[in-house]
Amino acid sequence: MGQNILGGGVNRNNVQRIVKAKAEGSNYIGVGDNLLDFGSANSFLKEDNCGKIFSFNISNADTSNAIKVALSAGGFASGSSYLDSSNIIAEGTVATHLTCSGTPEKIDALLAYVKANPSRLRAIKIKADDESQLDYPIIYRQINPFTGYIDQKRIPAQYQRSGDNNTKVIELTDINWILGADNILLTTIGAGRSVVISLVFGASLDTEKGLQKKADEAMANAAALGFSVD
To answer: Which member of 180, 212, 213, 214 lies 3.0 to 4.6 Å from 118 by CB, making a disulfide possible if both were Cys?
Structure first.
């Protein structure tokens, strides 16, 4: 039998430590927040060091027509008006002439993850086979069922800098976007073009991992307080 929490065997110092270990507060930076996954980092202060990068390799074999693609469709199915007739990206052949693959895992795995676990997008890296591909915008669409939707747009070509050794490679860093069930990421692949689009993620709200962490922490706290955990 475990001890009653009001019993004399309770270590008061451990109780105070547990009570003070709140995630949010005036000094909150994300450290120790069970619901957040920072990858290789441990707080929002080091969020750019998460090491969570996913790349789309996309090729449009149609030399006459550009093809719209949703890099993340949130909770919206193909045919939704919010997708602007874009093809939802997937592993393999997505549409006639359009083929895609993901790295380090299949694209379906990423789409399922961000739909269930909202994730902060810290940067987008684009490597195109031709500079003309950089003229197509990256569109971030936030959908709210009560107020409508808001678009933010970035034109990759505008991020080219004179003196760059490779003008076909750019990086978007002036973004503060979240990919989740209510957000969409759209772009267009030019006729005959191939491109690698890499998404650099920061913190994710990972409820599944958070649940396990909370259970582990509860057992550790119980043991520290002298309770039986059997």
So the answer is: 180
